[in-house]
Specification:
491 residues; seven-stranded mixed β-sheet; six-stranded mixed β-sheet; 21 strands; 35% helix; 19% strand
């Protein structure tokens, strides 16, 4: 039992993308230090195709060590010692899976959150689990973790037979820190088929030939999993015995960090992809399976969905150029008459499910700045379409949206989004999932629960109001985008 408030909490995020980030913050939400460590992006391993998305797991722990050591060194320069860090939590991508052997070493690359090869397996699971899906109001999609496990069972049976544990990305890093690899949280486990209503692994999973004992034990976000081991303390500089609490998926953690704290409030996390998540008192069910609900640590529901549009396409257009400079040029240029659905790779998950969907551009760009501006606007228009679909499902967003993720750092993009959405955008001081992990670390350590932690630690840094003069333009562009999606059979 902690008898006095600790001086700081720690969080880490994006362990399964191409950067590892770590923040150290105090009881008021002030960040004392933060550090990021990049590593090589996705690997191309045969048989590879456009729907394959894998990553070399061996890069994760070294990157984590480097980021932790850098953050601790930075914190030390302002008088925060490793012993002052009393708790940490991990957040990572949803649906990313790491096959581990009996020795807890990875058996090949991780299958990433946006790997969508398991189309046939999703269909098989939806047929097998029709009653389960109806109760939870969702369906399995090819990117879901359970679909990918079944794909491995059917296409790589030799490796499947060796797997002793299917760990999620965050679970693996918690294991590196504590030696406990077989525990996950019910937010991260949702796409692996965990039953949030009955709080158990459902029996239909075993009918697929996937042994339930190879799936992790599930706890609530914020629950204590273990503590930093001697070997991890030596590798990272963290104090031996530092408490490690369960995290959530990156989008769920970003919701906590955003300031959205009550039923009816929504957050958009714009990073590599676009993720929308809100708070609801009741379970939101989507007959088409586009929307699924996580469970809030306080018992509310967290309806949400993920689109594949986002920063990945924008980075490809930037091609190593300064995105800050490109933003300035896009702002000076003004609206584009192009209509763009900015997918970086094949397949879309929301506002429609279409594994073969491809991005498109209507019109001829005048120059590279025109195309870049069209991409910014395209993401904003898809975001508007997403919120319209949510409203149709009985989960409308209010006049204020909370925005997080790396994309929310762009003032130009935020104004475009506010104008296209016709809503006010509120951006917190710490708009990333790493800060949400810090809130989970603080819950039960500094504060009684995560809501109390959020009230004390989250602060709004800026508010962007929509420009009424832009409404007619974006209404017209939105209508053109919807028409083009319908013509392609996506809607």
């Amino acid at each position: 039992m902690i008898r006095r408030p600790p001086r700081s909490t720690q969080s880490r995020s994006s362990a399964a993308s191409d950067v590892y980030k770590r923040q150290i913050c105090d009881s008021r939400g002030v960040v004392a230090a933060e550090a990021s460590q990049g590593f090589a992006p996705d690997v191309d391993l045969p048989p590879a195709g456009p729907s394959y998305h894998e990553q070399d797991v061996s890069q994760w722990w070294p990157a984590a060590q480097a980021a932790i050591r850098a953050a601790l060194a930075q914190a030390g320069s302002v008088g925060v010692s490793p012993q002052a860090v009393r708790a940490l939590a991990v957040t990572s991508t949803s649906g990313t899976l790491v096959p581990l052997g009996a020795d807890r070493r990875p058996l090949g690359p991780a299958l990433m959150y946006n790997d969508s090869r398991a189309v046939a397996q999703a269909e098989q699971l939806n047929a097998l689990a029709a009653d389960f899906n109806a109760r939870l109001g969702r369906s399995f999609q090819p990117s879901f973790g359970l679909c990918k496990i079944l794909w491995v069972a059917q296409h790589d049976p030799a490796r499947f037979a060796q797997v002793a544990l299917w760990a999620h990305a965050g679970d693996y890093l918690v294991g590196c820190l504590t030696g406990v690899y077989d525990v996950s949280d019910y937010s991260t486990a949702l796409k692996t088929g965990y039953d949030l209503l009955e709080q158990r692994w459902p029996a239909f999973i075993a009918q697929t030939g996937i042994p339930l004992e190879r799936l992790p034990r599930i706890v609530a976000p914020g629950a204590v999993i273990g503590s930093v081991s001697a070997s991890a303390a030596e590798a990272t500089g963290l104090a031996l015995g530092t408490v490690v609490r369960a995290g959530m998926t990156d989008a769920s953690a970003a919701l906590l960090a955003s300031g959205a704290a009550r039923p009816g409030e929504w957050n958009s996390t714009l990073g590599t992809t676009l993720v929308l998540k809100g708070i609801s008192e009741t379970l939101v069910r989507d007959p088409l399976g586009r929307v699924y609900c996580h469970l809030h640590p306080l018992g509310w529901w967290l309806p949400g969905a993920a689109s594949s549009v986002g920063g990945e396409r924008l980075r490809a257009l930037a091609a190593g150029q300064s995105m800050a400079l490109l933003d300035q040029q896009a702002a000076a240029r003004g609206p584009s008459r192009l209509v763009m659905y900015p997918l970086a790779r094949r397949g879309e998950r929301f506002p429609f499910v279409a594994p073969d969907a491809e991005g498109f551009v209507i019109g001829q760009p005048e120059n590279d700045t025109d195309l870049y501006r069209a991409c910014l606007e395209g993401v904003a228009l898809v975001e508007r379409l997403c919120y319209d679909v949510l409203a149709e499902l009985g989960a409308p967003a209010g006049e204020r949206l909370y925005v997080t993720g790396g994309g929310s750092r762009s003032a130009v993009w935020n104004q475009i989004r506010a104008d296209a959405l016709g809503r006010q955008l509120a951006r917190p001081e710490q708009p990333e999932s790493a800060f949400g992990a810090a809130l989970l670390a603080a819950a039960g350590t500094l504060y009684d629960d995560v809501a109390q932690a959020a009230r004390a630690m989250v602060r709004i840094a800026s508010v962007v109001d929509p420009d009424p003069a832009a409404q007619a333009y974006y209404d017209d562009q939105y209508a053109r985008l919807v028409e083009a999606c319908r013509a392609r059979g996506y809607l």
